[in-house]
Specification:
The chain has about 750 residues and is α+β, with helices and mostly antiparallel strands. Helices cover about 15% and strands about 30% of the residues. The chain has a domain of about 240 residues. This is DUF839 domain-containing protein.
Length: about 750
């Protein structure tokens, strides 16, 4: 039994039989001792599926240690969703498919199925951002109408790196109209889709195209009057007619939703969507009164990484984006409500806990380097967890940010005016920097000197000193500036908290994706997010569980522990990198998908030492892991404590939004941005690359890997356009998944 599994059993409170668990200290953390145990081949024999073989040897692949080098010396990457024998998948919806009076959007992410009857319901899907290379290359082929790509590229080439401030161009200027046309098509491909679906007699999910089918796009309301609604204190800011910064004069109405990444499903049948990287589309920074920076601060740019500044030409107010959006798929007239008590930051997944007789709690993470974990607690009490009246509970309450202590305890800090200013010191962070609200100019500024913190605290005693307005307006401004307010209040800067999901007993599981620093955003607290052998950072991520003291949703203190560690098995990791979305199935098993940066997929690592004698960075070593993948963690039974690869995705894609149906027979997944860098795979082109791999016990060997260049998924025929799509995985036998 491996060290990792013994630690997992202790973490879960499970029994390891009659073995005495003597503590082992590693890097200051108490773990259980590694003992000789059942070989991997015997463990996999008890699994309900045969694990998929990825490019890296892992302890659960059924390959003995003595055979790892011979069996992994070559590997061929497939441009497909690769599943265990006996499983298949069906494409439910793909980019460009008709949805209501619009089309299925691009880069689908979070998925939720709201079941209205057995095998029938509403599929709600997020659409996050635009991958410029395949989108520009295939738009006309897929959508069937021209896109002014050449004109846009020529104008941007003339403008240079600064991009184009289309907002400042006069109405009637041809270039402004061209940019508006291009950006409107991009915004239509973002937001959310609501699809009516059912499972047919063969087990395949098909669309039924009901009156509920609709798109909520990045420009809903711009021309069609389908504005999104708002609740909470930030509405007082939205209704301002003037202020320190930019005001759009729309009041409490909002044009569209975009950068919709992960989400959550409520017990009462609504779906939450998180607006994540809005800083790419509109200015993130705000003034002390909560009003936005001018739209011109985020210029329109198209490059190989994406399409940025799409809100610029429309004059969108940045303070209206970065929120939690709730949608009722059963109401065809509902185009979403932004609940501002839940805070404005780079939202990822939501854990919604509704317990009769307790306050409603909504958990979410801010997916940036140095982002925080948050909890909203309602003023009112839940009576019936399945009542749609619970949505009203989010109109009044308090938002808290988590303070993690290295000893496994923690507390919640209220983001309100009388909360003391007490930031973490820059030196406790991996990158040695923290961003704090900048006053009187607005926005935020980097602090790298520990000595500057004392001066900051002397100048600003409470959060209320950093914001202006009456009591409601100050609270609204704090929520609008939640990340920077939480920095000022002393919340723990963490390692990119992507998804949050709740187990049946109320335990919160959090995927912390990456412990590397960012020179602009920040980095995690190095005393909380420890690398396994004392490294200064840990790129590969953690899965953590958090238990509220007293198991009460309104508790202000908690306990936490690390469940699983990303990284190579030889370093103590489970064999995956960058854990992202989490999903519990009806049996309590945990599913996880990874989120490695596309430019690292299958990036050649011929040697772990560079020509100058330095080590290859942890970031670049992610090339060893191949494509993004799907993992299964049994939470009970003979295989508890192990991690098994269930699938990997097409070339240059991210596997996102896992959702397992209540009958355990279908597993929905979003395949996001196939071919993001290479675009269309032409004439089935591929190339051979070399990788300095290691066995699970650390012996280095060379692997020759065949890597497709670009993608043709899901059509899979030569020169087919790569299309983001939602799939449903099932057993061919129609048995439950596991």
């Amino acid at each position: 039994m491996s060290l990792k599994r013994r630690h997992f059993l202790m973490f879960m409170g499970a029994s390891a039989g009659s073995l005495a668990l003597q503590p082992l200290v590693q890097n200051g953390q108490k773990l259980s001792p590694a003992l000789e145990g059942t070989p991997a081949s015997a463990q996999t024999a008890t699994l309900p599926f045969t694990p998929v073989k990825g490019p890296m040897p892992v302890e659960t692949d059924g390959v003995s240690l003595t055979n790892q080098i011979s069996q992994y010396s070559t590997f061929a990457v497939k441009d497909d969703v690769v599943l265990p024998p006996g499983y298949t998948y069906d494409v439910v919806a793909a980019w460009g498919d008709r949805v209501g009076d619009s089309r299925f959007g691009y880069n689908n992410d979070y998925i939720s199925l709201i079941e209205t009857a057995p095998g029938e319901g509403f599929l709600v899907v997020n659409h996050e951002y635009i991958s410029s290379v395949p989108w520009n290359e295939t738009f006309q082929q897929v959508i069937g109408k021209p896109l002014p790509v050449a004109e846009i590229q020529a104008a941007l080439a003339s403008a240079g790196d600064a991009g184009i401030n289309a907002f400042a161009l006069p109405d009637g200027e041809p270039l402004k109209a061209t940019i508006a046309q291009y950006c409107e098509e991009a915004m239509i491909d973002l937001g959310m889709s609501v699809l009516s679906v059912r499972r047919d007699a063969s087990g395949k999910w098909v669309r039924t195209n009901s009156r509920n089918d609709r798109r909520i796009t990045g420009v809903s309301g711009l021309k069609d009057g389908r504005y999104l609604k708002t609740t909470g204190p930030a509405v007082a800011i939205f209704r301002k007619r003037s202020g320190q910064g930019y005001v759009d004069t729309l009041g409490d109405k909002v044009i569209g939703t975009f950068n919709n990444c992960s989400g959550g499903t409520t017990p009462w049948g609504t779906v939450f969507s998180g607006e994540e990287n809005i800083q790419d589309f509109v200015p993130e920074a705000v003034f002390a009164d909560g009003t936005s920076f001018d739209p011109g601060k985020k210029a329109f740019i198209v490059n190989s990484e994406g399409v940025d500044g799409t809100g610029n030409v429309f004059g969108l107010a940045g303070n209206k984006y970065g929120w939690a959006v709730e949608v009722d798929p059963s109401n065809p007239n509902d185009y979403g409500t932004k609940h501002t008590w839940l805070g404005r930051y780079r939202h990822e997944g939501f854990g919604i806990r509704a317990v009769a007789g307790q306050k409603l709690a909504v958990y979410s993470g801010c997916d940036r380097r140095g982002g925080h974990l948050y909890k909203f607690v309602s003023d009112g009490t839940v009576r019936d967890p399945k009542s749609k009246s619970n949505s009203r509970l989010m109109e009044n309450g308090m938002l808290y940010a988590a303070k993690f202590n290295p000893d496994g305890t923690g507390r919640w800090i209220a983001l309100k005016a009388d909360t003391p200013v007490d930031p973490e010191l820059p030196s406790v962070h991996v990158g040695g920097m923290i961003n704090l609200p900048n006053r009187p100019d607005g926005g935020f500024s980097k602090v790298t000197d520990d000595g500057a913190i004392a001066a900051y605290k002397s100048r600003f005693k409470t959060l209320g000193d950093l914001y202006v307005g009456n009591a409601e307006e100050k609270q609204g401004a704090i929520l609008i500036d939640a990340h920077y307010a939480a920095n000022a209040a002393g919340a723990t800067c963490t390692a990119r908290p992507e998804d949050t999901d709740l187990a049946a007993d109320g335990t919160l599981f959090i995927a912390f994706t990456s412990g590397s620093p960012s020179g602009s955003d920040g980095s995690p607290n190095k005393f909380v997010f420890k690398a396994p052998a004392g490294e200064s950072q840990w790129e590969y991520g953690w899965i953590v569980k958090l238990m509220e003291d007293g198991n009460n949703t309104a508790s202000m203190t908690f306990k936490w522990d690390v469940m699983a560690l990303g990284g190579e098995p030889a370093d103590g990791g489970f064999g995956f990198a960058n854990p992202d979305n989490l999903e519990f199935d009806a049996k309590g098993n945990l599913w996880m998908v990874t989120d490695m940066s596309t430019d690292k997929h299958n990036k050649e690592v011929a040697s772990r030492i560079k020509s100058d004698g330095s080590k290859v960075s942890q970031s670049d070593l992610r090339g060893l892991y191949g494509n993004n993948s799907v993992w299964y963690f049994p939470m009970s039974g003979a295989n508890v404590g192990e991690a098994y690869m269930f699938a990997y995705g097409p070339v240059e894609c991210e596997m996102t939004g896992p959702f397992v149906t209540s009958d355990m027979k279908s597993f929905f997944l979003s395949v996001q941005h196939p071919g993001e860098i290479g675009g269309v795979r032409k004439q089935m082109k591929s190339e051979t690359r070399r990788f300095a791999m290691r066995t699970t016990d650390g012996k280095e060997f060379e692997q020759t890997r065949e890597v497709p260049i670009g993608s043709n998924w899901p059509g899979k025929q030569p020169n087919d356009p790569p299309k983001p799509s939602v799939i449903a995985i099932r057993r061919i036998s129609d048995a439950p998944l596991v």
